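Researcher: We plan to redesign the surface later, but first we want a full-length starting point. C-alpha cells attached.
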C-alpha cells in the first residue's frame, strides 16, 4: 500500500539560529516534499530568544502570571 505520508516537523533553537541553518531546514523540508510527503512545518523561537524574553520579563516584573508568560513565549 502506498500513499502520501503526513509528516509534522518542528524546528527551533539552534536549528533556525541564523540564515545558513534556516536554509538547511528549508532544504530538508523541500526534500521531504519532493519524495511525496505532505509536510506540516512548525517553527519555534530562534536560538536563545525564549531565554531573552524570559529575562526581559523578569526585569519588568517579579510577578509571572502563567497565562501571560505563555502568551509572551508563544507570540513574543
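Model: Full-length starting sequence:
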Amino acid at each position: 500500500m502506498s500513499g502520501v505520508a503526513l509528516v509534522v516537523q518542528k524546528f527551533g533553537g539552534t536549528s533556525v539560529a541564523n540564515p545558513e541553518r534556516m536554509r538547511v531546514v528549508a532544504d530538508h523540508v523541500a526534500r521531504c516534499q519532493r519524495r511525496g510527503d505532505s509536510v506540516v512545518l512548525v517553527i519555534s523561537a530562534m536560538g536563545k530568544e525564549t531565554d531573552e524574553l524570559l529575562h526581559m520579563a523578569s526585569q519588568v516584573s517579579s510577578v509571572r502570571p502563567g497565562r501571560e508568560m505563555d502568551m509572551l513565549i508563544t507570540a513574543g
